Amino acid sequence: MNRSEFLGDNNVSMINRLVYTDFQRRTNGSLNDKQKNRLVNTVDHYISEVYDNNPNANLTSMNKEVLGLVVSDFSSYLRRGQMSSSTDTDSRMADVSMQDRALSSDVGSRFAAIQNERGEQKTLMPPAPDFRIPIEDSNESPALSLFEQAKKAREADAKRIADGEKPTFSGTMLNDLNKESYDSGISNANPTIIKGDTIRIKPALPQDTIIPQDEILSFKENEYNLVVYSADRDWYNNQRENRYNFSVTFNPANNGQGFKMSPSANMRFHNIVRIEMVKAVVPNESVNTLIVNSGSGGTPAYATTTNLNILSEPGIILHIDELESNVFGTDDQLDRAFAALQYDAQWVPESTTNNPGYLAMIPKFLKCQKTYYPTPLATLTKLTIQLQRPNGNLVSDSLDTLDISGVFASTSFTGYTSTSIYMNAALKDTNNNATYYTIVTKTYFNRFAFTKNDRIKLQGINTALISGNDTAKADFKSYMENSSGLLIVGTGYTAGTVFTDGVNNVGYSNFIVVQAPYRDPTTGSVLIQPFGGTNTTNQNLATAIANVNLTGARLINLSKQTQLTFRIITRDMDSATRIRANNT
């Protein structure tokens, strides 16, 4: 389309006259100079905008689009002006009314009015916009009808110019506003033949803009198995806990496992939905010592062989300070319990006499769990575990660690009277080396706490207290403190200088016997491996350790420990919903 034709003075003047006449009719001729200038600027603005966005459209469609935009914009402008003027008038009237009332009000009423004025004033909500299409006066023609009339007048003027006549319009809006000659010779346009959608262009509304919502995150529940072993605690430095009373920490500061004050797990669980108790494995040990005297005639005969294990109770209670589950009972211990455990299974080694094996205790037919809903638990830092009897007492409060007072070789009991088969001088190899070593404890232990075939672990042997060859002392410490532990071959007790196998009348002992190291049996050798490499250094070491109090040395029974299994369910983001397959 020709630029000069759309942006020419004739076309611009024609559009100005149409909209001016239309709004003069709408406002009953009350447009002031400011509003007239605003109308002219609005027409100029939208003529430029329409041409810049649709330079190739025909003249008629572009004029229609300009008229629709100008009518919508200027109507909104007039409505805003009316709202502002009415608000100002109301405010002035309110001020005058307030002054009149203030003259006639008493002190109390005036004070209340002042307080209200000083209070926070709520901002009035603007009136809702009127989205209705205005109904035109049936006696007058709308703007588009006038546009059709003006188009025909322009065509008539163009024809007269082509015939050599002067144009009817001067080309400027202000000079032509009062002229009515453009109506001459023009038939009335019929607005009913124009489609309603093209009469006015509806302005863009906020609800027309679609704001996309954030993607909905998908989550899934992951299950983890947590296995806690009571021997993983720092049993050497921490004697406040035992196998039935200890705590577990998660992701400690040094980020490592091993022997700490409490068993530690590197994993730190986040967004925990549920924690469930699976089972507890406990040693089938006697938690009480029953003394029976069957003697008569003044001659006592004691027996302490009765095994009173936890199966003598209806069950045991798992109590965790940080967790309280859905268990309720008739006393405070049951109400605060995390799980009630009953017998499920038992397994024993081949030698059941001295090592009765283990018991599996589970929450049979129960669902012992702690659920965090609707908000998951952020993280888990510690669990304080206690295995209790139904009355709330610990299953056993006896320590599973013992302090060591000394170690003796079977060939170095000079001055001691031995009735122990493990200390008999004949029980040595042909090179006069010790076959067994006796570990004497500072306190007595009951016959069920440390038994034959149990595995013990030693720690804290100070070889600086022992005189003699350094290589022999290093070999002795390495063997006694090896990570796999030592097997118990027998226990006994001392009465003065007499070492006796077995237990005393009340079922207690105070020494443990372990075997000496042997040479490599794959070579066919049946001899003892001497500490220091020679028989001389080995025998000198045996004599030296017999006269030393090994202060600071300690041992633990690895075979009498508990193991608990938990199931922890966490809520994690499901990344599968955000991963695109390679073939899509």
Q: If you had to describe this structure to a student in words, what would you say it looks like?
A:
The protein is an alpha+beta fold and 584 residues long. The protein has 3 domains: 3-115 and 137-208, no CATH class; 220-398 and 562-571, Jelly Rolls (Sandwich); 401-557. Helices cover 26% and strands 23% of the residues. It is built from 10 helices and 23 strands. The strands form 4 sheets. Strands 1, 2, 3, 4, 9, 10, 11, 12, 13, 14 and 23 form an 11-stranded mixed β-sheet that branches. Strands 15-17-21-19-18-22 form a 6-stranded antiparallel beta barrel. Strand 19 and strand 20 (498-501) form a beta hairpin. It is elongated. It starts with a helix and ends in an 11-residue tail after the last strand. Mean pLDDT is 78; it is low at 169-189, 193-199 and 255-259.
What oligomeric state do these chains adopt?
A: single chain
- Stretches with pLDDT under 50, minimum 5 residues: 169-189, 193-199, 255-259
How many helices does DSSP assign? 10
CATH topology of the largest domain: Jelly Rolls
Q: Assign an overall shape.
A: elongated
Mean of residue pLDDT values: 78
Tally of separate domains: 3
**SS strand fraction:** 15-25%
Number of strands: 23
CATH class label of the largest domain: Mainly Beta
What class do helices, strands and sheet pairing give?
Answer: alpha+beta
Q: Helical percent range?
A: 25-40%
